[in-house]
From TrEMBL, chain A:
F-type ATPases have 2 components, F(1) - the catalytic core - and F(0) - the membrane proton channel. F(1) has five subunits: alpha(3), beta(3), gamma(1), delta(1), epsilon(1). F(0) has three main subunits: a(1), b(2) and c(10-14). The alpha and beta chains form an alternating ring which encloses part of the gamma chain. F(1) is attached to F(0) by a central stalk formed by the gamma and epsilon chains, while a peripheral stalk is formed by the delta and b chains. This is ATP synthase subunit b. It comes from Thermolongibacillus altinsuensis. It is a single-pass membrane protein. InterPro entries: ATP_synth_B-like_membr_sf, ATP_synth_b/b'su_bac/chlpt, ATP_synth_F0_bsu_bac, ATP_synthase_B_chain.
TrEMBL record, chain B:
This is ATP synthase subunit a. Its main location: membrane. Belongs to the ATPase A chain family. Key component of the proton channel; it plays a direct role in the translocation of protons across the membrane. SUPFAM superfamilies: F1F0 ATP synthase subunit A. The gene is atpB. Pfam families: ATP-synt_A. InterPro entries: ATP_syn_F0_a_bact/chloroplast, ATP_synth_F0_asu, ATP_synth_F0_asu_AS, F0_ATP_A_sf. It is found in: Cell membrane; Membrane.
Length: 169, 236
C-alpha cells in the first residue's frame, strides 16, 4: 500500500488525470492572471531602465560636448583678447614713433626757417646800411664840393650834418 | 500508521478523494498567492510583487544555467508553476494531518507517488514534445543514437530512469518526512512524558521538513530544466 499508492484497488487513473488537469489548468490560469502581467511589467521596467540609461548617457554626452565647446570658446576669446591688446600696443608704439618723428621734423623745419629769416634780415640790414652809407658819403662829398668854406664853417657844417644825421635817425 | 485512502470509483477510474482534495487546495493556494501578489502591479514593486519577482528571477536563473534564454524563455511559466506548486504541496502536510474514520484526508499531495510520478511523466513528455517541435523528428531521433548507435538501449532506459527518479525522489523525501512526523506525533506522544519528549524532535523535524520541501521544489524544477535542455539545446 505504501509502496506505490493504491495499487491493488483498481487502476488509479483518476488521480493521474485529476493531477494532470489541475496542473495544466493552474498553469494556464497563472499565465493569464498572474505571471503574464508580471512578466509584462518586468519587461516594461527593463525597457524603462534601459531607456533611462540611454537618456542619461545622451545627456552626459551632450553636457560633455557643451563643456568642450565652452572651453574652446573661452580659449578663443582669450586668444582674441590677447591679440587685441597686442595690436593696440603695437599701434600705440607706432603712433608714438610717428608723433615724435613729426615733432622732430617740425622743429627742424622751424629752426631752418628761423635761420633763413635771420640771414635774410641780416642781408637786408647790410644792404640798407650800405646804401645809406653810400648816399651819405655822396651827400657829404657834394656838400663839401658845393661850398668852399672856411675851416670854421666847415667844422660847423660837419657838426651840423652830424647832428642832422643823429636827429634823422 | 497505516491509514486507508478514501477511494471512489467512477467510469472505471479510481479516485483517491484525499488526493483530489489536496491537489485542489494546493492549486487554489498557489493561484491565490500569485494573484494577490500581482493585483497591484507597479513599475516600482512593493511587498508581494517583490517576492514574486524574486521567484521569477530565481526560476529564470535556473533556466539560464541550463540553456540560453531564447529557447528557455518558453519554459518560464512552467518552471514558476512547478516550483510554487511543489513547494506549497510540500508545506501542506507539515502542520498537521487529518484522519477521519481511519482514512487519511489531509496530507501533502506530493507524499503520494501517483502525484509526483504524474508530474515527472508530464515533464519528460513535455521535453520530448519540445525536442521534436524545436528540432524536428530527425534530429530528435538522432539524439537516441549519438554518440554511438549501440547506446540506444541505454538511452531508452535513461528516459524511464529519469522519469522514475524525478518522481520518486520528491515522493520519498516528502513521504519520509510525513511518516516521521506521524510517528513522533502519533506513536511517541502517548502519555505526558512521551508528549514532552516528542516536542523538541517534532519541532526540529518540522523545521528540517520545511528545508527539505523547499530544496525538493528547487531540485524538481532544476532537473526539469536539465531534461528540457537535453532535448532542446543545440549542442546535443
Amino acid at each position: 500500500m505504501f509502496v506505490l499508492g493504491a495499487a491493488g484497488h483498481g487502476f488509479n487513473g483518476g488521480d493521474i488525470l485529476f493531477q494532470l488537469i489541475m496542473f495544466l489548468l493552474l498553469m494556464l490560469l497563472l499565465r493569464k492572471y498572474a505571471f503574464g502581467p508580471l512578466m509584462g511589467i518586468m519587461k516594461q521596467r527593463e525597457e524603462h531602465i534601459a531607456n533611462e540609461i540611454e537618456q542619461a548617457e545622451k545627456h552626459h554626452q551632450e553636457a560633455k560636448k557643451l563643456a568642450e565647446e565652452q572651453r574652446e570658446l573661452m580659449k578663443k576669446s582669450r586668444q582674441e583678447a590677447q591679440a587685441l591688446i597686442e595690436e593696440a600696443r603695437k599701434l600705440g608704439e607706432e603712433q608714438k614713433e610717428q608723433i615724435i618723428q613729426a615733432a622732430r621734423a617740425e622743429a627742424e623745419r622751424l629752426k631752418e626757417a628761423a635761420k633763413k629769416e635771420i640771414e635774410q634780415e641780416k642781408e637786408q640790414a647790410m644792404a640798407a646800411l650800405r646804401q645809406q652809407v653810400a648816399s651819405l658819403s655822396v651827400l657829404i662829398a657834394s656838400k663839401v664840393i658845393e661850398k668852399e668854406l672856411s675851416e670854421q664853417d666847415q667844422a660847423k657844417l660837419i657838426s651840423e650834418y652830424i647832428q642832422e644825421v643823429g636827429e634823422g635817425r | 500508521m497505516h491509514h486507508e485512502a478514501p477511494l471512489y470509483e467512477i467510469f472505471g477510474l479510481t479516485f483517491n478523494l484525499a488526493n483530489v482534495l489536496m491537489i485542489t487546495v494546493t492549486s487554489v493556494i498557489v493561484f491565490v498567492i500569485a494573484v494577490l501578489a500581482t493585483r497591484n502591479l507597479a513599475m516600482k514593486p512593493t511587498g508581494m510583487q517583490n517576492f514574486l519577482e524574486w521567484v521569477m528571477d530565481f526560476v529564470k536563473n535556473i533556466i539560464k544555467s541550463n540553456m540560453d534564454w531564447k529557447t528557455g524563455g518558453r519554459f518560464h511559466v512552467l518552471g514558476m508553476t512547478l516550483i510554487m506548486y511543489i513547494f506549497v504541496a510540500n508545506m501542506l502536510g507539515l502542520p498537521f494531518s487529518v484522519v477521519i474514520d481511519g482514512k487519511l484526508w489531509w496530507k501533502s499531495p506530493t507524499a503520494d507517488p501517483v502525484v509526483t510520478l504524474t508530474l515527472a511523466t508530464m515533464v519528460v513528455a513535455l521535453s520530448h514534445y519540445y525536442g521534436i517541435k524545436l528540432h524536428g523528428f530527425g534530429h530528435y531521433a538522432k539524439g537516441f543514437v549519438t554518440p554511438m548507435w549501440f547506446l540506444f538501449p541505454l538511452k531508452i532506459i535513461e528516459e524511464f530512469a529519469n522519469t522514475l527518479t524525478l518522481g520518486l525522489r520528491l515522493y520519498g523525501n516528502i513521504f519520509a518526512g510525513e511518516i516521521l512526523l506521524a510517528l513522533l506525533a502519533g506513536s511517541l506522544a502517548t502519555g505526558v512524558g512521551g508528549t514532552i519528549a516528542a516536542i523538541i524532535p517534532t519541532i526540529a523535524w518540522q523545521g528540517f521538513s520545511i528545508f527539505v520541501g523547499a530544496i525538493q521544489a528547487f531540485i524538481f524544477t532544476m532537473l526539469t530544466m536539465v531534461y528540457m535542455a537535453h532535448k532542446v539545446s543545440h549542442d546535443h
